[in-house]
Structures are given as structure tokens and as C-alpha cells.
Design goal:
With 187 residues, the protein is mainly beta. Helices cover 7% and strands 37% of the residues.
């Protein structure tokens, strides 16, 4: 059986079992616009209907930012920063999901790339590595690839990266370097 996955350039036909990660009933496919049934731009009320088996939990982020954690089978699969002005204890249905992130290996894209994937495998799947950059805030490291949407951000496990060319960017990494997660944003 085949399933259709929409990528950044053109639709691709992928085996249906590419979606079967984690528990047999779970689909946590990553695309440039979604993780599992959650899409950028949908409201929390729509998200609850789209993923009824998920629990939606409020968590404290940095600097009073409110995070939404999406939990399935006691596993946090998706995180979304939902804002600063959310009243204590509240998770309003009208809240819009402007970004989604996963750091869980159950979630993968149609190429099989996700948290824990080798950086070299991600580079091969996405047409080659462009650069690995450190963010200005918190020194997070992100890899850019030739054939990905600018909305997709590939966070790298920082333990296997070298910075010989510049203090903030490089293309050098150890063979064991892995992705920590994939983040998707509306901007």
C-alpha cells in the first residue's frame, strides 16, 4: 500500500509503513506544515479534535512563555510555544499554533528523518548540508540543508560539531552527530 506525502518541492509517493512509528496506531509524520495531525495555524480547539487520543498540557517555558505539550501514550511528542499572555491554568481553544517542535524519535518525516537521526543521513536525504549555525540565544545549533523548506529547522545535538571556520557557523561535524529534533514555524 502506498501513501502520498507532500514535500517542499513536489508530492512524493512513499510506502505507507513509513508512517508507522511508535505504537502501531500512532501517525506522527513531520511535514513542512505539520507534525502528526497538528498543523501550523490551527487553533488548540481544532488540534484537540484532530488528535483526540492526545493530552494537551500547559507547561512553563523560559521567561514566562507558556508552552503546550502534546502527550500521547505518556510520551511528549510535540511542543508549541503558545504565548506570554495566557491566563494561569488556562489553555483557550482559540489559541493559534504558530510553531511546532518534536524531539521524540517516534516522529519522522517521509524520508525517515527525525530526532536521533544521523546528521549525515539528514544531509543525504535533503540534498546536502548547507551550514550548521549557533543561535544568538542559548547557543542552540541548527543545520540547514539544500532541499528543505525555510519553515523547517533541524536542531542538532551540539556534542558532535566543530567550529573551525567561524565561532558561529560550520560544515564540520563528527560522523556520530545526530539531530536533536525538528521545529516548524510559520515565519
Amino acid at each position: 500500500m502506498l501513501a502520498l506525502a507532500v514535500g517542499t518541492a513536489a508530492a512524493q509517493v512513499v510506502p505507507a509503513d513509513a508512517y508507522d512509528v511508535g505504537p502501531p496506531t500512532l501517525s506522527c509524520l513531520i511535514t513542512e506544515n505539520s507534525i502528526g495531525p497538528l498543523r501550523i495555524g490551527m487553533t488548540l480547539g481544532e488540534a484537540r479534535k484532530a488528535w483526540p487520543e492526545a493530552k494537551f498540557e500547559r507547561r512553563a517555558g523560559l521567561d514566562e512563555l507558556v508552552e503546550l505539550a502534546v502527550v500521547v501514550d505518556r510520551q511528549t511528542l510535540v511542543i508549541s510555544d503558545i504565548g506570554y499572555d495566557i491566563p494561569p491554568g488556562a489553555l483557550p481553544d482559540k489559541t493559534v499554533l504558530r510553531n511546532l517542535a518534536t524531539y521524540h524519535p517516534w516522529c519522522k518525516d517521509a524520508r525517515g528523518i527525525g530526532s536521533g537521526s544521523l546528521l549525515s543521513d539528514a544531509a543525504a536525504a535533503y540534498g546536502g548540508l548547507v551550514v550548521i549555525r549557533k543561535s544568538d540565544i542559548e547557543q542552540r545549533e541548527y543545520a540547514s540543508f539544500k532541499a528543505t523548506s525555510p519553515r523547517m529547522h533541524f536542531r542538532v545535538d551540539y556534542t558532535s560539531i566543530f567550529y573551525p571556520e567561524s565561532p558561529r557557523s560550520t560544515t564540520a561535524f563528527k560522523p556520530e552527530a545526530r539531530l536533536m529534533g525538528i521545529e516548524i514555524s510559520a515565519y
